[in-house]
Design brief:
CATH architecture of the largest domain: 3-Layer(aba) Sandwich
Radius of gyration: 21 Å
CATH class of the largest domain: Alpha Beta
Distance between the termini: 53 Å
Helix content: 25-40%
Bound molecules: pyridoxal-5'-phosphate
Low-confidence stretches: none
Number of domains: 2
Order of helices and strands: HHHEHEHEEHEHEHEHHHEHEHEEEH
Strand order of the largest sheet: 1-7-6-5-4-2-3
Mean pLDDT: 96
Structural class: alpha/beta
Largest sheet: 7 strands, mixed
CATH topology of the largest domain: Aspartate Aminotransferase, domain 2
CATH superfamily of the largest domain: Type I PLP-dependent aspartate aminotransferase-like (Major domain)
Length: 388
Amino acid sequence: MKPNTKLSHLGRTAVNAPGTVNVPLHRASTVLFDNVAHLHDTQARWEQDEQIPTYAIFNMPQSLALENAVAEIEGGYRAVTYPSGLAAVAGALLAAVKSGDHVLMTDSCYGPGRKFCESFLTRMGVETTYYDPLVGAGISALMRPNTTVVYTESPGSHTFEIQDIPAIARAAHEKNAIVIMDNAWATGLYFNAIAHGVDMVVQPATKYYAAHSDVLIGLVIANERTWPMLKKSTYELGQRASPDDCFLTLRGLRTMGIRLKHHHESALKVTKWLQTRPEVKRVLYPALESDPGYALWKRDFSGATGLFSVELKPCSDAQIAAMIDGYAFFGLGYSWGGFESLVVPADLRYGRKVAPWHGGPLVRYSIGLEDTDDLIRDLEAGFERLNG
Ligand SMILES: *Cc1c(COP(=O)(O)O)cnc(C)c1O
């Protein structure tokens, strides 16, 4: 099946959607068994990894439909849902580490994920060191005997560095470490992380999968090597997304193919226009030929999405606020990937260690599904306000 055909059909079976196009919303906690023998038999089959429900935490129709669809899109073996993307970041890490371990984390990672390592993992006795996102095969030199996880995110949050994931994965696997990747920006449609050597994919499905700014949800997708540890740890943590949020995410993913194509085309148009503006020093978007990540992006990715940053020429905070505050179509707020365009001053307050940002003021844009003529007019008026 080609990607859009997959998106239209995945997740639905004769059992979970008998006679309907969609999997009907299925709310339940307790699963009833016919008799004691059935209870024991079901439990045993669950332990053997059959996709069979014993209780609401695993394998209920709604979450299973979504998990199987996302596992297929991301090129993985099995997946689990989490109540947010951040919970999925934490869930993937907790599945893979134990006290005394060492984690190598990209310095360009999602800020709250860094916080999780610095605070929570430190308390657990797990040490995190940060590496330059552009390290490539050089990650080898940073590996220690107790390094169990190399965590990647490409492109990086706010600064959009494209990582050489195959080179990093080869070096990590030589030393037997697990590679985790946050694949929010590209999704499995535009970057098959598992095929490029990643063992566990974090997918903040709040973004392009659910896409309507009304759901908080995450998934972790495992390959066969990491599935047992992910299954065990998710079960022990008691984490999962609600059936309602799984329902909405499955609805969202049906249109992800055409949405991403539109986001890509619109973002290219807008970024090329931004490059012509005298107020702009640089546009950080790997799909632009001028971007330092372009060659790697071209080699490994099959598309780009709607999120990028703009480095402005030196200007004051007040000028930036004047520009942002008057936008008609760019909402000012966190998150991205929805149908509506958003803007936020890039947030580097989490304090990078080895690859700090030395450039000028950064503003991050998420291009939604609006017509680009309207968006460009809105951005143009913003620059007029910035210029006073
Ligand atoms: C938004 C985001 C997350 C967290 O997702 P939530 O669902 O908002 O918790 C994780 N990683 C990246 C790269 C993100 O952009």
